[in-house]
Structure formats: structure tokens, C-alpha cells
Design a protein that fits this description.
Elements (H helix, E strand, L loop, with lengths): L14 H23 L5 H9 L2 H36 L3 H11 L2
Length: 105
């Protein structure tokens, strides 16, 4: 999945809050891109640039944690779906029909 803003911390209907958060992130990323465009930086130089802006470094650290959690959740869901398919493949059509009937609400 693509990256998303981590956590707005307010109701999704709060357009002013969302605009403020998006403006902040846009400003941070714009600054980073401008710095990186100034030359062909090495990986180490890129890290120095990232760490030279405390707000950007904090956002990046939080974003990396959020990405890790999101990826772990996605992988867990994939494992569950694969296990479900494997278990269902062992059932006869009649057993599948009975199982569906049991869980219909």
C-alpha cells in the first residue's frame, strides 16, 4: 500500500486540521527535495540533511514506525487469508456449504 499521513489525531471531517497537517508535511518534504537537488549527495549526506531538520527527522522516525506497524498488519492478514484458503481447500463442497450456512446472519 502507498504511504499515508500517519495519524491526524482528530476527526476525519476536520478539514482545517487536515489541511494544516498536509501543509506541514508538504513544507517538510519540499525542503528535503530542495536540499537533495542541490547536488548528488551520498547516502550519508542524505542522512545528514534529514537529521539537520528536527521536525523532518521526527516526522520521518514516526512515519517509519507507522510503516512498520502497517506492514506487519498487512503481512499478518495475508498469513490469515492463506491459512483460511488452505483450510477451505481441504473441505468438500458440502462441508463448505454447511460452514457458510452456520455463519450467515
Amino acid at each position: 500500500m502507498p504511504c499515508r499521513c500517519d495519524d491526524f489525531g482528530y476527526a476525519s471531517t476536520d478539514n482545517a486540521g487536515m489541511q494544516k497537517e498536509l501543509d506541514n508535511v508538504t513544507n517538510l518534504l519540499c525542503w528535503l527535495c530542495q536540499e537533495l537537488e542541490k547536488g548528488n549527495q551520498s547516502f550519508e549526506t542524505g542522512l545528514l540533511i534529514l537529521n539537520s531538520n528536527p521536525k523532518l527527522a521526527a516526522w520521518w522516525k514516526k512515519h517509519q514506525k507507522s510503516d512498520k506497524i502497517r506492514i506487519e498488519k498487512e503481512n499478518k492478514l495475508k498469513e490469515i487469508e492463506q491459512a483460511k484458503k488452505k483450510a477451505l481447500a481441504k473441505l468438500t463442497p458440502k462441508e463448505k456449504q454447511l460452514l457458510r450456512a452456520m455463519f450467515q446472519v
